[in-house]
Write a structure and sequence with these properties.
Elements lengths: L1 E6 L8 H16 L3 E7 L5 H6 L4 E5 L5 H11 L6 E5 L5 H11 L3
Parallel strand pairs: 1-2, 1-4, 2-3
Helix pairs in contact: 3-4
């Protein structure tokens, strides 16, 4: 099973999303064999947390990426088929939300 998770975290915005993702990933890995991809922004202070999260792949995008460029990166990420898509972001731009919704309804 392929699982896609979009979550960002930094000392400025808070690390709660990444800590929550860490717990979710650990639980999923215990109950089901799965490949998990984390889609996140590249914050230097979050690198140690990324190392602790037991994901199979991390897609890092620049911090100040435009919505249009992030949409392109999301589209590229969804060239892989995911059975589950988790978006752990409170504020998600409409364009990005549409990409996530379309791709989470494929299976």
């Amino acid at each position: 099973m392929n699982i896609f998770i979009r979550a960002y975290g930094s000392h400025l915005m808070g690390m709660g999303h990444l800590y929550r993702v860490n717990k979710i990933v650990n639980k999923l890995k215990k109950i089901k064999q799965c490949n998990i991809t984390l889609f996140t922004q590249k914050y230097s202070e979050a690198i140690n947390i990324y190392k602790d999260i037991n994901v199979d792949d991390i897609i890092e995008i620049p911090i100040n990426i435009s919505i249009e460029d992030e949409a392109k990166e999301l589209e590229k990420a969804f060239e892989t088929q995911y059975e589950i898509c988790i978006n752990d972001q409170l504020s998600t731009d409409k364009i990005l939300a549409e990409i996530l919704t379309i791709n989470s309804n494929k299976s």
